[in-house]
Amino acid sequence: MPPVVFVILNAIQAAIAAAPQVEAIVKKGKDLITALFTAKLITKEQQKQLHDHVDEIVEHFQNNEPPPAWTVEPDPTN
Amino acid sequence: MKRYTQKFTIFLFALAALTFTACHSAKLETGGAYAPGSTTYSTNETTGVISTNVIETAAPDLALFNLDSAFDLAYTTANAVFELERNNRQLLWGVDPNIKRTLDTIRPQAVHAVQQYGVFRRSYIANPTPAGLSQLQQILAEMQRFSTSAQSALPKK
After folding, report:
1. What would the mean pLDDT of B58-62 be, rounded to a whole number?
2. Which of A25, A36, B13, B134 could form a disulfide linkage to B22, CB 3.0–4.6 angstroms apart?
């Protein structure tokens, strides 16, 4: 594993410690990195997970209103 | 709050760098969503043991896998920023009203980019072509630009 990877992984560990609110995002990122570097073989299950997840996102945006966080809402009043 | 956003931003850029580095050397297991295959069965006449073998039915599409991976990351990044601002809107408005205003200019464009990615992805999957792949790459580049801009709108340390 290239040395730069360890530097980057340390940065990720520091981010995890400082940002518990985004644990789900960090975990997804770690899972992806582990998959890409551990065996360099993306398993059928990992492929399905990504494929289904992207399907879910794009279909939601095609067929529904965007999530509230993605819409422009009125400014705060004060 | 400020330290959190700085470390989160570092994490996201680190993740993008790692993903870019790793994706080019990854392999796809045959039979997966990006490497279609069919399973054949053969029986050993002596032992009766049934063996399975997965054969490729189409070339593995590592390019689409890489694009979807990068799209997922860009989407997750943008979503995290939009949600962070929305969940802390009153506080951030007090820090700087331009945070929300900046993100409000990005939001509709990011929605459009996600919708476009879905349209062209469906088209590419039905009929994979280099031109279709190029189109997806362009839309992804837009998504990544919006994600970066959204992150930049958050307050720095």
Report:
1. 81
2. A36
Cβ within 8 Å of B, A 25-44: 25-26, 28-29, 32-33, 35-37, 40-44
Q: Amino acid identity, residue B46?
A: T
pTM of model > 0.80: no
Tell me whether residues A42 and B34 touch, CB distance under 8 A.
yes
The residue that leads in pLDDT, B156 or A49, is A49
pLDDT of residue B29: 85
Kindly state whether A74 is in contact with chain B, defined as any CB-CB distance less than 8 angstroms.
no
Tell me how far apart the alpha carbons of residues A36 and A47 are, in angstroms, rounded to a whole number: 12
B126-135 long-range contacts, CB within 8 A, separation 24+: B128/B61, B128/B64, B133/B63, B133/B64, B133/B67
Would you say B18 and A8 are in contact if contact means Cβ atoms under 8 Å apart?
A: yes
In terms of DSSP H, where are the helices of chain B?
2-23, 62-87, 89-95, 97-126, 130-153
Q: Model ipTM?
A: 0.74
Distance from CA of B110 to the nearest CA of A (A): 8
What Rg do the C-alpha atoms of chain B give, in angstroms?
21
Are B107 and A72 within 8 A, CB to CB? yes
pLDDT in tens, A11-40: 445 444 444 445 555 556 556 656 555 657
Measured in degrees and rounded to the nearest 5, phi and psi for residue B41 equal -125, 140
